[in-house]
Design goal:
This protein is of the alpha/beta class. It has 13 helices and 10 strands. A 10-stranded mixed sheet has the order 7-6-5-4-3-2-1-8-9-10. Helix 2 packs parallel to helix 3 and helix 3 runs parallel beside helix 4. The longest helix is centred in the N-terminal third of the chain and has 21 residues. It is globular. Bound molecules: iron/sulfur cluster (SF4) (2 copies).
């Protein structure tokens, strides 16, 4: 019975989306994520981007124009990611404008530039701030290749709470290099944030060259067991890139369920104005659905993303076609597919 409801929830999202499309009313994405810069003051070993200052970025004026376009199209949430978004001088002005127009707003930051001085403005303009912390003290500094970064990030959590930011989320990428610090990270998040979101390394960008960052079967089992056993009075979420977890799924995803919303509920505007399913998907022709320099957002959303919306699963990996969990999983995370890491059930030996 439980499984029936799980399948029904996922199917309902896709079926209602496609029914509306057939009636000529493509539902707007709930969330648009803007990759505002690839510049970064850190050099994290697990970074999914190659942070680089050479790319041309969308201007403030273009973003103000786009915010109006997204708002009138019906987008509800506007979130900013990077690189490090606070390296752009206009990021908070753009978020303030988004908030004023009526978006629910989000910001992902490494916390280095959050201070007592700007925390008030951040709290006023951003509904949910994600601060990345990957280890306690020296571990964090080593993974981020930036000394002093742990102190700054932990302080960012505190000053954002002090200034009553609506939601402060600590985010951590777990790899074999920090797996032993789960307890310390949990305590830090619990004391200083409203929730903790855990992800694992994506095989893209700088991290694509670091095989030692991928968790082994035993390590992945340890991580999922840890999450499953956390008390229910503090929210611990697992990022979606691990996909469907087989019989562990309901234990780990206690308050949500795996569903990749790319191309259905969300999309990403890249630094150059090209639109793709999510920030983690590489900005290569295979994943680009349109270019805001040539087309409106509505045109791109309504005419692109065909493979994401296919109820017949035409683009899923061959090994998924006969899988009994296909309706629940839909082939896992597309980014993880790039290195054949998409089947967490297989990685855990749960087939
Ligand atoms: S085989 Fe494919 S559809 Fe089945 S659980 Fe693994 S990734 Fe998901
Ligand atoms: S492609 Fe992967 S990382 Fe991107 S939204 Fe889907 S599950 Fe998440």
């Amino acid at each position: 019975m439980f499984r029936f409801f799980e399948e029904a929830k996922r199917k309902a999202i896709l079926v209602s989306f496609n029914s509306m499309r057939r009636l000529g009313k493509t539902p707007a994405p709930k969330t648009v994520v803007w990759e505002c810069t690839l510049a970064c003051n850190m050099q994290c070993v697990h970074c999914g981007a190659y942070s680089n200052k050479k790319f041309k970025e969308l201007s403030t004026e273009k973003m103000f124009f786009l915010l109006d376009e997204l708002s009138s199209y019906g987008v509800e949430r506007f979130a900013v990611t990077g690189g490090e978004p606070l390296l752009r001088k206009d990021t908070l002005d753009i978020l303030a404008r988004a908030k004023k127009i009526g978006f629910s707003t989000g910001l992902s930051t490494n916390g280095f530039f959050v201070s007592d001085e700007n925390a008030r403005k951040i709290a006023d303009s951003v509904d949910s701030v994600q601060v990345s912390i990957d280890g306690i003290g020296r571990t964090h500094d080593l993974l981020r290749r930036k000394s002093g970064s742990f102190i700054k990030a932990a302080n960012a959590l505190r000053v954002l709470k002090k200034h009553n930011c609506k939601q402060v989320c600590m985010t951590s990428i777990i790899s074999p290099l920090n797996l032993d610090e789960l307890n310390g990270l949990y305590d830090l998040a619990r004391q200083n944030a409203d929730l903790w979101r855990i992800g694992t390394v994506m095989p893209i960008g700088r991290a694509s060259k670091n095989n030692e960052l991928i968790l082994s079967r035993e390590q992945l089992t340890k991580l999922l067991k840890f999450i499953a056993e956390t008390p229910s009075d503090f929210l611990v979420l697992l990022g979606e890139n691990l996909g469907y977890l087989g019989k562990l799924d309901s234990l780990v995803h206690k308050r949500d369920f795996f569903f990749c919303g790319a191309g259905i509920l969300s999309c990403c505007i890249g630094i150059d104005g090209k639109v793709r399913g999510c920030p983690e998907l590489p900005s290569t022709s295979e994943f680009i659905e349109g270019d805001l320099a040539k087309d409106s957002f509505a045109d791109i959303w309504e005419n692109g993303f065909r493979d994401y919306r296919n109820e017949a699963f035409s683009k899923i990996p061959d090994d998924c076609i006969s899988c009994s969990d296909l309706d629940l999983c839909r082939g896992g995370c597309q980014v993880m597919r790039l290195r054949n890491l998409h089947c967490t059930k297989k990685r855990l030996g749960l087939e």
